[in-house]
Amino acid sequence: xxxxxxxxxxxxxxxxxxxxxxxxxxxxxxxxxxxxxxxxxxxxxxxxxxxxxxxxxxxxxxxxxxxxxxxxxxxxxxxxxxxxxxxxxxxxxxxxxxxxxxxxxxxxxxxxxxxxxxxxxxxxxxxxxxxxxxxxxxxxxxxxxxxxxxxxxxxxxxxxxxxxxxxxxxxxxxxxxxxxxxxxxxxxxxxxxxxxxxxxxxxxxxxxxxxxxxxxxxxxxxxxxxxxxxxxxxxxxxxxxxxxxxxxxxxxxxxxxxxxxxxxxxxxxxxxxxxxxxxxxxxxxxxxxxxxxxxxxxxxxxxxxxxxxxxxxxxxxxxxxxxxxxxxxxxxxxxxxxxxxxxxxxxxxxxxxxxxxxx
Length: 359
Description:
Blueprint: E1 5-11, E2 20-26, E3 31-38, E4 44-49, E5 55-60, E6 64-66, E7 72-74, E8 77-82, E9 94-97, E10 103-108, E11 114-119, E12 124-129, E13 141-144, E14 160-165, E15 171-176, E16 181-187, E17 194-201, E18 208-213, E19 219-224, E20 229-235, E21 241-248, E22 259-265, E23 271-277, E24 281-287, E25 294-301, E26 307-312, E27 318-323, E28 328-334, E29 341-349, E30 353-358
Antiparallel strand pairs: 1-2, 1-30, 2-3, 4-5, 5-8, 6-7, 8-9, 10-11, 11-12, 12-13, 14-15, 15-16, 16-17, 18-19, 19-20, 20-21, 22-23, 23-24, 24-25, 26-27, 27-28, 28-29
InterPro entries: Cycloisomerase_2, Haem_d1_sf, Lactonase_7-beta_prop, WD40/YVTN_repeat-like_dom_sf
Family: Belongs to the cycloisomerase 2 family.
GO molecular function, one term: 6-phosphogluconolactonase activity
């Protein structure tokens, strides 16, 4: 039997509710089942795990929290949990302030020596060195953003929404929804040295949210939340982004309100996927093998409301979508020739799921 895929789902939840759910997917049969549920973390809206699978990192997306002294403090937290290598159970968590409200995304360098957390409501990105025991150390760096966009309701201030490291770990690309920019930071020669490097602009009011790189190429794709588009970029030899074309994630016939949430590229680099909240679908794009350009291929219903996040298995055969407002995680099988997700007839109830992590 092929080894089961390990799946972790983060959810919006109070501290005394279930915030993290562990699942397993049997790839040969498509069986999906829960194996554990955990509380003691409020609004675990984004998850990451180290390569060895020994530590799970999560952001607690709040504007206030209670510190170790029992006092209320402003902001959110970065949580980390040891994972037992045999039972795969989570151990007691450790928590660190993110120095900004509503942290919504985190990422690890390829060498796993830094964690970057974006504070959506704090106009900042906070950087933590990772200790040899895989626990985050005290934050060492905080990048502050300034600027606005034309959307008065959503772009009244900077809103960093995600941060992604380059394959060599030298650069950090930050999508700022409020500024309509992707800002790049560069790692210096000293151990704790990072500095501003570059910035590129999107269409006014686009609202860049997440980014995905195409494997073994110089193609990058930025998902724009507010205008429901994907923008193709070429990454030059210096790591700078050069803007190309943008495509809508919505069908021409759709006239309602919708915003984008997540974008992923298939492991083989043939397809890109983006989630639409409102149209409640996964948009599928075929990627030109030579140019990296996107071609719209269709839309698939996520069979629920508000698909904030989804994930692909490492073999590219399965997709799991988290429907936040219908409290479900739904399984799809990827059709290998078209790349379209096909409903596998399996869905599990999870309260307000907003992140899916597949190890």
